[in-house]
Design brief:
Length: 332
């Protein structure tokens, strides 16, 4: 199994139809009373971790923390499928070129296509990479740590590298897959509460999660202007947030093969994030990538399939997700 699709194949008609489907069981956001703080935190798994880094850096004036599971450094692929396959996934000799990456990222900053990297200095960053991960090698995760060490102060960066996890989102529930395998829906029972650990690092002390979530999953219309995303994204909204109480926004980016068309609502409901959302007044935004003929596993664009400009703040997918944020933050 490979979580991160980088192989050109053709979707069958059934999968394509699923990828474009809008789940009818969720209500659309039409009369939101959400009162969301301006500061955002993000997290992601695998291609979602790559995307979370891109979103963090591109919108660092609003994003104040990032939690990254089984990912690699910003611009690891350097707009090259061959580089992505060789140095950003599971090959034994994977070795992201941080010097070349830094040169390009600094060029974007100078051109004002990315914010000043000094904006990241006080942000919280939490990185988890299981040492049994063969889909994205631990060395790639270490390169991500090295990259963030350039940007954030040491006390704000936490790296968890001592867990025997495969390639998945680890949880402390007993409904996931085995912890030593990587298979759909890529949410595993590991006796480890990644959702709680990452939120505590990003937000500070948090209340214990509830036993069962009671909020609603809402539909959001996603931009299609060059983003190649699904038509619909989702947000988990606790009852207190729905009623207009002040809440914070956390964005969670799924991995490859984890969008709704592939695993139904598993990523929307099984990571543990929603149970913490209820007890800590958090809205969880779940944007959705989509499968296509050249991206059949529905990965986020971290190697350039939407075009060369995929990590700048003008990138189509980054802009589309920010539009979702603006939908949620709109005052009614």
């Amino acid at each position: 199994m490979s979580h991160c699709l980088l192989k050109t194949t053709q979707l069958n008609s059934k999968l394509l139809a699923l990828a474009l489907a809008i789940a009818p069981v969720y209500a659309a956001v039409t009369d939101s009373k959400l009162q969301l703080a301006d500061e955002i935190t993000v997290s992601g798994l695998s291609s979602g971790a790559y995307m979370a880094v891109q979103f963090h850096v591109a919108f660092s004036t609003q994003v104040k923390g990032a939690a990254l599971i089984a990912g690699g450094p910003l611009y690891c692929a350097q707009n090259s499928l061959a580089t992505a396959l060789t140095h950003c996934l599971g090959k034994e000799n994977a070795n992201p070129d941080l010097n070349s990456i830094n040169t390009y990222v600094n060029e974007l900053v100078q051109a004002q296509r990315l914010p000043d990297l000094a904006q990241l200095h006080d942000d919280k960053v939490w990185i988890l990479h299981g040492h049994a991960d063969t889909t994205v090698k631990p060395e790639v995760g270490k390169a991500l740590v090295s990259q963030y060490q350039q940007w954030v102060k040491p006390a704000n960066l936490k790296f968890v590298a001592d867990k025997p996890f495969a390639h998945h989102f680890p949880t402390d529930n007993n409904t996931g897959t085995a912890c030593d395998v990587s298979e759909p829906p890529f949410i595993a029972s590991c006796n480890y509460d990644a959702a709680g650990e990452l939120l505590q690092h990003l937000l500070g002390p948090i209340a214990p999660k509830v036993d069962s979530s009671t909020g609603n999953i809402r539909q959001l219309t996603q931009s299609q202007a060059g983003s190649l995303l699904a038509k619909t994204g989702f947000a988990y909204v606790p009852k207190r947030c729905e009623a207009g109480e002040p809440c914070r926004l956390h964005i969670s980016f799924h991995g490859c093969k984890q969008h709704v068309a592939a695993v139904d609502d598993a990523y929307l409901t099984q990571t543990g994030l929603n149970e913490y959302a209820d007890s800590n007044d958090l809205v969880i935004l779940y944007p959705q990538a989509a499968a296509s003929a050249f991206n059949p596993h529905g990965c986020w664009d971290w190697w350039g399939y939407t075009g060369d400009d995929y990590i700048s703040k003008q990138a189509p997918q980054l802009q589309a997700v920010m539009l979702l944020v603006e939908q949620l933050m709109a005052k009614h």
